[in-house]
């Protein structure tokens, strides 16, 4: 996310594809609300919260690291982390994605999970079992790959882990298209939208 030099404020990252590019897995209507309303609201709220504070010229990562776990700064953390998470989520998806990753990433997956199917099962279980709002992640710990889930706005990099991919399981990510069928949404995202090239870039 870039800041406007004149205003020292964050701006909404454009989607890396047209709003209808992820159909039929994720509809244009969902992206209009998810990106244009929810993501935009996090950006707008963050800018208001940091205006006139020591965070006005800091990066998202710096803001998140500094406010993580601090109750008096929880509003700033939540909005900054949600801006970061959504930016990462949009890049974790691509039209006609999913399928099998490249050999380099596949070797890491098989070495860490035993098989690609076991990895898919683990990622799906993390996403489906996250109680309430949150995220499912593929992360790199320096030695191997892991699947994890975080609640609300939490991010893996504050725990020393490197995010490679994420799936948003807040209800606004899927409810217009799937209602309460989160498992169906998760399965479709894994099979048809995951951006393996993005994951490999993040691992380097």
Strand order of the largest sheet: 4-3-5
Q: Helix segment count?
A: 8
Q: Which descriptor suits the 3D outline?
A: globular
Main sheet? 3 strands, antiparallel
Order of helices and strands: EEHHHHHEEEHHH
Q: Which regions have little confidence, pLDDT < 50, spanning 5+ residues? A: 1-7
Please state roughly what percent of the residues sit in beta strands, choosing from under 5%, 5-15%, 15-25%, 25-35%, 35-45% or over 45%: 5-15%
Count every beta strand, where a strand is a DSSP E run of 2 or more residues: 5
CATH third-tier fold name of the largest domain: minor pseudopilin epsh fold
Helix content: 40-55%
Termini Cα gap: 21 Å
Structural class: alpha+beta
CATH architecture of the largest domain: 3-Layer(bab) Sandwich
Average per-residue pLDDT, rounded, comes to 95
CATH class of the largest domain: Alpha Beta
Rounded to the nearest angstrom, the radius of gyration is 17 Å
Number of domains: 2
Give me the CATH superfamily of the largest domain: Iron/manganese superoxide dismutase, C-terminal domain
